[in-house]
Amino acid sequence: MSDVDDWPHDPDGEQGSEGRRKYGHAVLAKKIDEEEDFPLSAAEYVEEFGDDPVRISHEQVVSVAEIFEHVGQDEFEDFVEFHQTLGETMRENGYWFYEGAEQFVDA
């Protein structure tokens, strides 16, 4: 696990996981405004938040940029598309720690 000093802000502070109350997908989603930020450019999102920490599990913190390395989409039309794409990307690349997550995804 990375040291807090390695990140632009505390991974578990209010800008991060909010005291470990939000993980992964929720940390990514809280950085955008559903009403104002769409369509959303993936490149602009990474430019603004790429160095920010995302707590994946109680043991793992990665950067926004690391997650987006696996996103094959340049733009998101709306919040639902953002959620679906990031959720799929995170599951496919080992950034989804929720037990039973596969039951919510069509195989």
What would you note in describing this structure?
30% of the residues lie in helices and 9% in strands. It has 107 residues and is an alpha+beta fold. The chain has one domain (4-96). The strands form two sheets. Strands 1-4 form a two-stranded antiparallel sheet. A hairpin with a 5-residue loop joins strand 2 and strand 3 (61-63). Pfam families: DUF5785 (PF19098).
Give a quick rundown of the structure.
The protein has 107 residues and is α+β, with helices and mostly antiparallel strands. It has helices at residues 25-29, 42-49, 64-68, 79-92, and strands spanning 40-41, 53-55, 61-63, 75-76.
Give the topology, please:
Blueprint: H1 25-29, E1 40-41, H2 42-49, E2 53-55, E3 61-63, H3 64-68, E4 75-76, H4 79-92
Antiparallel strand pairs: 1-4, 2-3
Short descriptors:
alpha+beta, 107 residues, two-stranded antiparallel ribbon
| Mean pLDDT figure | 85
Q: Fraction of residues in helices?
A: 25-40%
CA-based shape: globular
**Sheet with the most strands?**
2 strands, antiparallel
Number of helical segments?
A: 4
Beta content: 5-15%
Number of strands: 4
In terms of per-residue confidence, which ranges show pLDDT below 50 for 5 or more consecutive residues?
none
InterPro entries: DUF5785
Pfam families: DUF5785
Organism: Halolamina salifodinae
Protein name: Sulfite reductase beta subunit-like hemoprotein
